[in-house]
Amino acid sequence: MLGTPGVDELGDAVAALREWQDDGAPMQLHPGDLGWFWRFGAEATAAAVRTWSRDGRILAVGLLDGRDLLRMTIAPDALRDEELAQRLRHDMTVLPEGKVYLEARKGALFKDLLSEDGWDVDEPWTPLSRDLAAPVEDPGVRIEVVGPDQAHAWAGVIRASFDKSTFTEERWHAMAAGSPYADARSLIARDERDNAVAAVAVWSAGPGKPGLLEPMGVHRDHRGHGYGKAITVAAAAALRELGSSSALVCTPSSNVGAVATYASGGFQRLPEIQDLRRDA
Question: Which of 70, 192, 210, 250 has the highest Cβ tally under 10 A?
Fold first, then answer.
């Protein structure tokens, strides 16, 4: 039942994730999460993905996002499936010994089983969503859709937005070569002096499905001028153009600045969610 797809099988995992996205569902693993991971290349992405299948149908998809974090979601009609829950419980051996974390969809039976095994809740995260039924307002700054010729500028903003980022132009090209990027856009916001001040990637899951912002950053030298709000509004507009029903983003609740930025861009806070943590 547990499998690691080859590069030529990644499309099946992406297709399953697209199918499972729904505006009424809690925050869950999105095809854009795989798309963002694709910056490390197709082979690395395939090696990090796990699928659980039965009778030829994928029922769960996981992404090993680093050594100690498994991010996963389950087909909506299999959330309370006893056989699958027991299998997933057994297969948490995909994580190493020691302290590890699990991000999984709310309401899944196997999360209840893991709690019985001593897993505890971790720090809260805040999901936010913006409905895209109505047209999106002008962001108030110049927005550019990034192509290969501007990959260096987008990469530069991302590096300057996150203290430990090692993102490069080459990684943008790897990300853009992944199948999820066919329904994605990279955007840059520029100020009146033509400085690249903020950047975001948006990922559609298909028409009528919620889209994802991942990542979004404001250059550390240009903070405090409303560029976070501007690029967030631009991201919502881009997803609406791609046919998305809503725009989603999720950030640690402790990052009050990020939560406030998304809220200023018209995103509504959803109930907090928590990962599970195993300390030993």
Answer: 210
pTM summary value: 0.97
Q: Which residue has the tokens 């995909």?
A: 94
Cis peptide before 215 (omega within 30 of 0): yes
Say what the pLDDT of residue 106 is: 86
In sequence order, the β-bridge partners of residue 198 are 189, 218
- Nearest by Cα to 252 from 99, 123, 121: 123
- Complete domains list, the chain, with CATH: 2-124 (3.40.630.30), 130-272 (3.40.630.30)
HSE, CB side, 13 Å, CA atoms: give it for residue 115. Answer: 11
* 272 phi/psi in degrees, rounded to 5: -60, 150
Vertex 91, ends 85 and 93: CA angle to 5°? Answer: 145
Per-residue pLDDT tens digits for 129-138: 999 999 999 9
Contact present, 183 and 203 (Cβ < 8 Å):
yes
Please write the tens of the pLDDT for every residue from 5-35.
999 999 999 999 999 999 999 899 999 999 9
Q: Do 244 and 205 touch, CB atoms closer than 8 A? A: yes
Nearest to 210 by CA among 108, 101, 80, 73: 73
For 233, residues 6+ apart whose C-beta sits below 8 A from its C-beta are: 136, 137, 138, 139, 140, 265, 266
Cα-based angle 109, 115, 120 (whole degrees, multiple of 5): 130
**DSSP secondary-structure letter at 8?**
G
Query: Rounded to an integer, what distance in angstroms lies between the CA atom of residue 10 and that of residue 78?
Result: 21
What is the rounded average pLDDT of the residues 206-234? 97
